[in-house]
Inverse folding.
């Protein structure tokens, strides 16, 4: 951190960290579910991977990411059609990378968005499995978790296994499905991936001011750590400019975290 | 040529207790809500619904019409959860046959092609198979020998769809940006009832340039109901958008008293015109902006 580094918020740090998911993907459909993932996909396309395809979150492919919130005079730059039928065709074909926000995640990267508790009579009925089973069997997936804690990163398996993960006991014939590919997991505390032994979740970087012990204590299973993880890179001035003026001019990202905290945690 | 026009009551008179009913559209877009309200007013019960679910699922559950829901999601979009559906599920009142979104269209496609099932990898390695013991697995007969999920045909006794325009024979168009899976719902069903914004003469409905807006052919259509704003409170682009406020009020009414009040104000009405008036009139509904996400 230098004295001239720009001020940024935790939301902006997470957007920049999430954008990295698509850096080396080439020409795939980038789907960011939720505000931070969607802004991250837009940032990736406008900065380091212009080949990405994306939609207007409705039914057309767009040549540039659509700003979130009221659009004023902005005209959507349509470059193609993407109704849901074609979305299924595309995703079963594999050229997509989704960044999603599950409610629970376990040590295998299995995710839950369906229900908390017993599925027949759940404590909380949530979205349904939606596209998670098909997504995780067919194309790369990354995760954004805005509330890193032991109720999200659970000790056992998630209550309803909505997506396939690195759990050999559940693999068909005991063999890892060829297209199973879990990439990044960005949280409000750290960046993780599945690069530990047997695809264990591994700490890639710690957000500024966050301690490694804090991340482990907030996770219901042991994390893989190699040496002392670096600090998550701060957003560059260019990245902040793109986020603030082009992608999210109404600052909807200020609502992601309570109180819209800064990107650098103040240690006590 | 058959004139297939009918009233909502005539549609619902052809439905029976215990039927499997497919409902077209997607979440808060092009749901045949006026036909659903007619179902709410009827004594129908023990229904199995197949849907990319929106408020129709919660309403039919709240009214005690539903035994089972086959779904990939039930959502109000702007509000992720339908509280009426949540209540029914959390009370264990409905059987939740929850599949991947893609598996729903796959099962409809199998029924549409009159096949017993279609294979897919989707669902392997997840709880989808455990939660749905009625799904099967099948082994590829070829050298790969791969084990796959067999999604059984989702055969529908009836499909209810809201399209844009139709002629009196059931030639119809979907002019909104996404036709969703209405064509598969239609082909998977023994009887298809469509509501539409307006019934128009064939020559005004379609021409060589617009023929591709027709989702399926008229031989599938049993009944045509002219119901302008018949999708309200869901969207029917390009005619009108989502009534976000109405959906929020509906979602906030997920108590026995709240639902009774909603029913009294918006369901137990003599006709569709009364409903439109209760929602603020045709002018207000025409002004609902199209969804922006």
């Amino acid at each position: 951190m230098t004295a001239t580094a720009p001020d940024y918020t935790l939301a902006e740090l997470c957007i920049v960290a999430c954008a990295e998911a698509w850096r080396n993907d080439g020409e795939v459909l980038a789907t960011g579910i939720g505000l931070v993932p969607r802004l991250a996909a837009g940032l990736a396309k406008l900065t380091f991977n212009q080949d990405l395809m994306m939609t207007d979150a409705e039914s057309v492919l767009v040549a540039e990411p659509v700003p979130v919130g009221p659009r004023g005079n902005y005209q959507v730059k349509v470059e193609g059609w993407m109704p849901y039928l074609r979305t299924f065709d595309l995703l079963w074909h594999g050229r997509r990378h989704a960044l999603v926000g599950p409610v629970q995640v376990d040590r295998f990267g299995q995710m839950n968005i369906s229900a908390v508790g017993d599925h027949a009579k759940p404590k909380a009925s949530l979205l349904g499995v939606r596209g998670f089973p098909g997504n995780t069997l067919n194309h790369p997936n990354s995760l954004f978790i805005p509330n890193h804690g032991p109720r999200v990163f659970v000790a056992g398996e998630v209550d309803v296994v909505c997506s396939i993960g690195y759990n050999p006991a559940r693999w068909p014939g005991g063999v890892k499905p060829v297209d199973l590919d879990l990439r990044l997991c960005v949280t409000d505390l750290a960046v993780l991936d599945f690069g530990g032994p047997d695809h264990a979740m591994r700490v890639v970087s710690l957000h500024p001011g966050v301690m490694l012990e804090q991340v482990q204590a907030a996770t219901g299973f042991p994390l893989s750590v190699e040496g002392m993880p670096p600090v998550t890179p701060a957003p560059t001035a260019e990245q902040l400019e793109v986020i603030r003026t082009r992608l999210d001019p109404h600052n909807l990202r200020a609502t992601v975290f309570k109180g819209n905290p800064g990107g650098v945690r103040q240690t006590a | 040529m058959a004139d297939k026009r009918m009233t909502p009551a005539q549609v619902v008179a052809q439905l029976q207790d215990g039927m499997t009913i497919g409902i077209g559209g997607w979440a808060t877009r092009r749901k045949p809500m006026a036909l659903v309200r007619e179902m709410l007013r009827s004594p129908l019960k023990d229904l199995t619904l197949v849907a990319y679910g929106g408020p129709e699922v919660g309403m039919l559950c709240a009214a005690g019409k539903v035994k089972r829901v086959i779904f990939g999601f039930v959502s109000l979009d702007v509000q992720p959860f339908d509280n009426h559906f949540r209540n029914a599920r959390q009370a264990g009142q409905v059987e939740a046959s929850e599949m991947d979104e893609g598996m729903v269209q796959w099962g409809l496609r199998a029924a549409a092609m009159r096949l017993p099932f279609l294979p897919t990898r989707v669902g392997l390695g997840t709880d989808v198979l455990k939660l749905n013991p009625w799904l099967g697995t099948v082994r590829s007969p070829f050298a790969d020998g791969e084990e796959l999920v067999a999604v059984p045909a989702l055969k529908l006794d009836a499909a209810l769809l809201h399209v844009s325009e139709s002629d009196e024979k059931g030639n119809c168009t979907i002019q909104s940006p996404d036709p969703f899976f209405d064509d598969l719902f239609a082909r998977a069903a023994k009887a298809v009832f469509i509501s539409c914004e307006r019934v128009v003469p064939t020559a005004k409905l379609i021409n060589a340039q617009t023929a591709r807006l027709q989702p399926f052919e008229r031989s599938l259509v049993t009944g045509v109901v002219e119901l302008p704003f018949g999708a309200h409170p869901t969207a029917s682009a390009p005619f009108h958008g989502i009534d976000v406020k109405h959906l929020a009020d509906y979602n906030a009414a997920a108590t026995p008293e709240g639902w009774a009040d909603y029913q009294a104000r918006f369901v137990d009405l003599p006709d569709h015109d009364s409903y439109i008036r209760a929602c603020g009139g045709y002018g207000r509904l025409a002004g609902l902006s199209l969804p922006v996400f």
About this structure: Chain B touches chain A at residues 26, 71-75, 80-81, 85-86, 89-92, 96, 98-103, 105, 120-128, 131, 146-147, 177-181, 291-293 (CB under 8 Å).
